[in-house]
TrEMBL record:
SUPFAM superfamilies: Actin-like ATPase domain, Winged helix' DNA-binding domain. Residues 1-36 are annotated as: Disordered. It comes from the Bacteria. Coiled coil: none annotated. It comes from Auraticoccus monumenti. Belongs to the ROK (NagC/XylR) family. Keywords: Kinase, Transferase. This is Sugar kinase of the NBD/HSP70 family, may contain an N-terminal HTH domain. One of its GO terms (molecular function) is kinase activity.
Amino acid sequence: MAGPGYHSAARWGSVGEDEPVSTAGGGTGPTDGWPELDATVQRIAVRVLRRGEVSRAELARETGLSTGSLTRVTKPLLAAGIVTEGSARPGGSGRPSLPLRVNAARASFVGVNLTADTAYAVRTDLQGTVLDTAELALPDRSPVPVVDQLAGLVRRWQRDGPPLTAVGVALGGHVRDWRTVTSATYLGWQEVDLGGGLGARTGLPVVVGNDVHALTQAAHLFGPGRGVSSLAVVTVGVGVGAGAISHDQLLVGHPGQAGDVGHLPLEGGTSPCLGADHVGCAVAELSTSALEQEAGRRLGRPVALAELVGLAGAGDPRARVVVDRAARMLGTLAGTVAAVLGPELVLLSGDGIAVALAAPEEVRAGLARVLPAGPRPELVIDPVFSFHTWAHGAAGTAILHALTGRLPR
C-alpha cells in the first residue's frame, strides 16, 4: 500500500514489457555520449548558458583566462557539440569574431513542478527554450500514482520528441541529495525516494529539488536575473518561501532548507500561525489563506484573493487596508532577505503575487523600512505568474547538473 513513508526505489512498481525503460537515443544508459568535462570546462559551459551568446573576448575578460587557454578550454565543448559558434560579429580589424552559444539541439530535458493537485511540466532544449508544456491532474497524491503519471508523460515525450537527457522535478518541501523528498507537507510525503523511483521507471537521471529554488534558477538562467551574479526571490501564495543566488551559485543550505522563511516574524504581525506556537510570522500574515481570512473578517463574508484585489482596486477601503498592509509586509520580508544576502536584484513572485502588483508602492515602502540608506537592489514584481515557470526552473536545474557532471547514473 502506498503511503507517505513508502520510499524504497525497488518498490515503485516493476517495469514490464509494456513499460520498457527507455535509453533515449540508444546505448546502454541515458547519459551515454555525454562527455566527462573538467571543472574549468564545466564553468565555461555554464557561463555560456547563462549569457545566451558570448564572444571569446568577453569570456576571457570575465574568467581571466588567456586567449590560448580559452581556446583549449572551449575545444572539448565544441567537439562534443555542447557549444557551437554563432554568426560572425563585426570587429575592429582582422578576422570577425565568432560568438559562442549552447547548442540547443544537443540535448532535451523535462522539468516538472508538483503542487498539491497538479503536475506542471515542460520539455526544453539544452539552451532552456521551452518546446512543449503539459499539465497533469493528480487525483491521488500518493508517491506511486504520482510517479506513474510522471513516467507516462516522460515516456510520451521520449517517444514523440528528441532524445531526453534528464528530468528535473521541483516541489514544495525539503530534499536531500537532489533525490529524496524528506518532507513535503502539501503532498503528505516523508522520506520518499522520488529521484530513484522516477529514474527506475524512465531510465533517465532525475534531479529533485525545492520548488522555490527551481524558480530562483529559472530567474537566473532565463528570466530577469540573467546577467547578474546575485539575486533573491521571495514567493507568496499557498506558502511563503525564498531562494537566493550568490556568486552565480544557488544557495541550497543544510539540509536543503535555505530560504525557509515562512516562520520569520514580521513587524506588526498579530495573526496566529496554525500548527506553530507563535503569531505574526510570514505564513500567518502573507499566505493566501491568511489574506482571505483577514479579508473575510473585515468584510463579514468569504472573500477570495482575486476578489480582494479587485475590491481594493475599485476603492473599497476595507479591502484596501488588507492589500496595503500585506504588500508592505511583503516588502519588509523582501528587505530582510536582501539585508542578509545583499543581492543585485530581488524578484517577487508566486500564486499570491497579485497583492504586490496591486500595491507596488507599499512593497517599496516596506523594503525601504529595512534598507533605509545606501544602494538598494533592483525590485522586480513578476507580472505574469505561471507554475510552468517553476517547471522551467526544474529543467534548468537538470541542465546545470548535466553541464557540471552531476547527473545521477
